[in-house]
Amino acid sequence: MIIVYVLECSDGKYYVGKTSRSINIEHCNGSGSEWTRIYRPIRIVENEQTDDNAYSVLNKTLDYMSKYGIDSVRSDRYSEVYLSIEEKKNIKQLLLHKNDSCYDQHHEDEEHQCYRCGGSDPDKCDDYHVYEYYDYSDKND
Fold first, then answer.
1. Distances from the Cα of 98 to the Cαs of 8, 126, 135, in angstroms?
2. Which of 20, 26, 42, 62 has the fewest CB atoms inside 10 Å of its own CB, making it the most exposed?
3. How confident is the model at residue 69 (pLDDT cuts 50, 70, 90)?
4. Is the pTM of this model over 0.85?
5. Any idea what the Cα angle at residue 14 is, between residues 10 and 19, rounded to 5°?
6. What InterPro entries does the annotation carry (predicted)?
């Protein structure tokens, strides 16, 4: 069992982490992530025990990024203070898929395909699969 936790940090920032011991020790003494060295933890907002740490941390990170913005949330998976354009693009696609809004944002002439499995049905893929949208109407130009 591990604990997935969310720290509220200075300047309206958040950090999502996991631990098998007491929460926040490594972050409060300055030996945690670069994010929490810059944006000091204020308080623990959430904590929950789970068996599925990889999915739980990613899911919680995406929830907070959706609510507070990509630039205001970090975790073990997205630990860099400044994310690359590709990382932000990936996160935006994950958020669209996670929130089931990807189909609402694209036209009927677009074909949906998962990067990981190549499938076209998001219900048959894991929640964190990334979908790309191909618009074939421009292919012959």
1. 23, 10, 21
2. 20
3. very high
4. no
5. 115
6. GIY-YIG_endonuc_sf (IPR035901)
